Amino acid sequence: MHPFCVQLAYFVILSLVGHLALKISKPRTAGSFRPASLDIFFTSVSSVTVSSMSTMEMEVFSNTQLLIMTSLMFLGGEVLISVLGLYLSRSYFSKQQTKESRVTSNYHSPPKPTTFSGLEIDQKPPNVDLECNINSSDNDQSLKLNSIKCLAYVVFGYFLVVHITGSILVAMYISLVPSAREVLSSKGLKIQTFSLFTTASTFSNGGFVPTNESMVAFKKNSGLLLILIPQTLLGNTLFPSCLRLSIWVLEKITRKVEFRYILMNTREMGYGHLLSFAQSCLLAITVLGFIMVQFILFCSMEWNSGAMDDMNSYQKVMGALFQVVNSRHSGESVVDLSIISPATLVLFVVMMYLPPHTSFWPIKQQEEVVSGTDQKCKKQRKSLVHAYGNVGFSTGYSCKRQLEPDSLCKDACTGFVGRWSNKGKFILILVMFFGRLKKFSINGGKAWKLY
């Protein structure tokens, strides 16, 4: 099956299972409130596709439902999906290698000895060079197979270390800082559940937070924001660069030939997040450059705005940094997006439009095309398609912004999609699915290179 069909089936099945689990478990506000089945399915799809679009207030969900959503984001994140892809590719590659070895063993029979003067002398086979090349090729294939296995272990270890460390740090901060602890206490949230949920959401760039107002409730807790900022980068835009750095460190410590092979043969590994040294450096520079530009523009336009009220200078700096980092592509918000300037919103839209692995290349890359004995160089072409990300920023819904005031209108801490019709929600469900699989429509998942 095509990888697109495999992943689409995976996300659809996982969404259906999540929908069933969320529907069986009772919400926190039991009684007359019964969430619609489509809203529950929408929440499940949004969790699996890490889109963070919500049609219901987050504080409606019980502790059990929050843990279910944590599992969905955990299983639907890009890093874990890529680990499963590595295991599948290793299994396929191992089967192919077994078939080739069987064909080779049947084709090459051992040479018969030749008798001369009563002595048996081994006759040199005429294809000894070919057999040597085959043996060398077998060794290379075996090394590649072991390297894919090591890479899968490294990525999975990277995944676990960030989640475990992040959850512990978030839980420690909330336990030690009274203001953060009071926020959870007033909302009836458990520290352990909040830590696991927020870490899984931040690393997978899901954008969900168990509070109705996202991270606005913690806008003065700069230490918590500082803990979450690296998790956002480690799970998305800086993942390829940090992964290569991790492999380089492991190679220096262990001196294993598999790690060296991974670093020297990035394309042969067939792992889209594994980049060369130059690509990793350029990606890191691009990401940090985008953050710096956004940070300067955001501070210059919003420093004295109502979105930054009741915050001192340090809290404004950390809040601005947290906000611009989340514009690619987490979706957690520390300010009310409905009251920031339109120019800032346009800036965020541009950042959401760019794929996470967009990098700046100062020199146009060229590739060699070999045809017989002639070698031709041609410029690598890219087809720019309309990308749609899974960020989940929303300006919310407020009755004050109605053109025709309605007395029955009630303010809700949900996304604007919460007021859409069922048909509109269903269309967004399709968009979330294919937005999660957008890598198959952008030249096989290759990143954009800005020249």
From TrEMBL:
<feature type="transmembrane region" description="Helical">
    <location>
        <begin position="271"/>
        <end position="298"/>
    </location>
</feature>
<dbReference type="GO" id="GO:0005886">
    <property type="term" value="C:plasma membrane"/>
</dbReference>
<keyword id="KW-0406">Ion transport</keyword>
<keyword id="KW-1133">Transmembrane helix</keyword>
<dbReference type="InterPro" id="IPR003445">
    <property type="entry name" value="Cat_transpt"/>
</dbReference>
<dbReference type="GO" id="GO:0015081">
    <property type="term" value="F:sodium ion transmembrane transporter activity"/>
</dbReference>
<comment type="similarity">
    <text>Belongs to the TrkH potassium transport family. HKT (TC 2.A.38.3) subfamily.</text>
</comment>
<feature type="transmembrane region" description="Helical">
    <location>
        <begin position="224"/>
        <end position="250"/>
    </location>
</feature>
<dbReference type="Pfam" id="PF02386">
    <property type="entry name" value="TrkH"/>
</dbReference>
<protein>
    <recommendedName>
        <fullName>Sodium transporter HKT1</fullName>
    </recommendedName>
</protein>
<feature type="transmembrane region" description="Helical">
    <location>
        <begin position="6"/>
        <end position="24"/>
    </location>
</feature>
<feature type="transmembrane region" description="Helical">
    <location>
        <begin position="151"/>
        <end position="176"/>
    </location>
</feature>
<keyword id="KW-0812">Transmembrane</keyword>
<keyword id="KW-0472">Membrane</keyword>
<dbReference type="InterPro" id="IPR051143">
    <property type="entry name" value="TrkH_K-transport"/>
</dbReference>
<keyword id="KW-0813">Transport</keyword>
<feature type="transmembrane region" description="Helical">
    <location>
        <begin position="66"/>
        <end position="89"/>
    </location>
</feature>
